[in-house]
Amino acid sequence: GFCTNLLLSQIPEHILAQTNNKTEIICELKTENSGVYWYRWSQERQNFEFLVFSNPLGKAMYGANISQDKFSVHGASSHTSYSLHISHLHASDSGTYYCSISQSSQLLLGSGTRLGVVDVLPLPPKTTQAPLSKKPVRCVTKSKAAGKKAACSPLVWVPLAASVLVLLLSLVPTAYRLHRLRRRLWLRVHRQ
Question: Which domain holds residue 172?
Fold first, then answer.
């Protein structure tokens, strides 16, 4: 049986490649192993096909009718990373590729890499740029922006505090007049 497992990870998840070019799929293993198997699932043909097995010494065993010119496996010296190279790409190479290891009589599969092969790669979407403004733009530097969030500078709060003080001092005579008026009224009321 086949099981997907966290012991293997594949990059990338998707590849879109052009006919006659080449591509690479990387399989990372969490632990050293006795070798990596590579399989391809073809949606069109509805079959799971064995491509190649590669051991840590670099020896490869290919599946039936699999071209050694098309598929090759390269392993890192750590024996925890293997890459499948596919060259001379054709539409028939499209499918989902899986790296796999054997453990306790089970084949553990990687996450899979979907490969699509097309004659012409689609153009990247064009980015539209806003027209440049003729008006001068006022820039605010980070230090000025930070200053706005922080406490006001003395140039702002000193005149503000002075105006508040002047306002309070101008209220003192008015409060004194109101106090005298109230006292006079109180005296008139008590005299009667």
Answer: 156-191
